[in-house]
Amino acid sequence: MLVAVTGGTGFLGAHTVRALLRHGHRVRLLARRPDRVAAALAPLGVAPDAVDVVEGDVTDPAAAARLVSGVDGLLHAAGVYTFDPRRRAALRRVNEHGTEVVLAAALAARVGRLVHVSTVGTLYPTTAPAIGPGSPLGRSREPYLASKTAAERIARRYGAVVTRPPALLGPHDPHLGDQNARLRDLLRGLMPLWPTGGLPLGDVRDNAELHARLFDGVPGAEFFGPGSFVTTREYVGTVRAVTGRVLPAAFAPARALAFAGRAADVLQRCWPGRLPVQGGAIHVCEVAVPVVAGAPDARVPARPLAETVADTVRWLADTGALSARRAGRLAAPAVPLSPAPPVTPAGPAGSGATGKALP
């Protein structure tokens, strides 16, 4: 199967490209900067000539039409994931408008399989003790969650299969996204105060495997990404255990810290660097609930959180994003790619791709 992918140079997107190729699919990427494709995929063992590349942006209808021309399936993984208040316009432009543009092009091209990457956060806040299939979309006013909820409504209109990954950690993050950056901040001593509550957390590699299986013919319209609900205390405790670091941390009710989060967001608008305190992250810890047991996940098991944290910290240290001292006992050689279970290719082996930008 020839699968078009948006967001293929991002964290989950790049890992998904690798998983799709392993499953025997061919891949065509949409990239604003084709020169960045190799840098995103090479650390995952993907050769530059393993994929075709279409240059363009998800908000450009002409580029979207070139991307989906003649493909069998589409994975729409492009999106802005951030709680940074300075990027609210980008959230609306990419997450909402970009979804409309790409899925409209896919519908016009009669693409057979549409998969839209959403987030469990679209179901927050909720009065239920857990979320699962059939849970109503939330009405959060937090800009990131609101933009992803709007994007999911669009995806549903186009009949796309929806996946809901949890917050993701893992090695080989091309842009050091929010979750991996937050882990680094914790190890750098920049997060001594945490909100109570928790969040659903998973490994990027497991969620990439889920996406690849959806193009092998797995039926269903709604899937929850592999992961587990982790309280903030459990998360900090896991990081302490795997690194051997003490990492002093205090915990306060998320609702009580909401004012500090709003104040940090105001400061962030004029502060040039990234602040470790974000109102949106505190909000998620306050409203997040677990996913019900048995929710559709294409039978992809979630690896233990300790393994994910350990692999991520080793990768941070190996790439120089974290000092050996701060990585603790995990200051070790580079993180090898975890072996994945054998798969039966859904299509012909090999990609047959040129690796050159298409006209």
Account of the protein in words:
This protein is an alpha/beta fold and 359 residues long. It has one domain: NAD(P)-binding Rossmann-like Domain (Rossmann fold). It is 38% helix and 14% strand. The chain contains twelve helices and 13 strands. The strands form three sheets. It has an eight-stranded parallel β-sheet, with helices on both faces. A three-stranded mixed β-sheet has the order 7-9-11. Strand 4, helix 4 and strand 5 form a beta-alpha-beta unit. Helix 3 crosses helix 4. The chain is globular.
Question: What is this structure's SSE topology?
Answer:
Elements: E1 2-6, H1 11-22, E2 26-31, H2 37-41, E3 52-55, H3 61-68, E4 73-76, H4 88-108, E5 113-117, H5 143-157, E6 161-164, E7 167-169, H6 178-187, E8 193-195, E9 198-203, H7 204-214, E10 222-224, E11 228-231, H8 232-243, E12 250-252, H9 254-268, H10 279-287, H11 305-318, H12 324-327, E13 357-358
Parallel strand pairs: 1-2, 1-4, 2-3, 3-13, 4-5, 5-6, 6-10, 7-9, 8-12
Antiparallel strand pairs: 9-11
Helix pairs in contact: 1-7, 3-4, 4-5, 8-11, 9-10
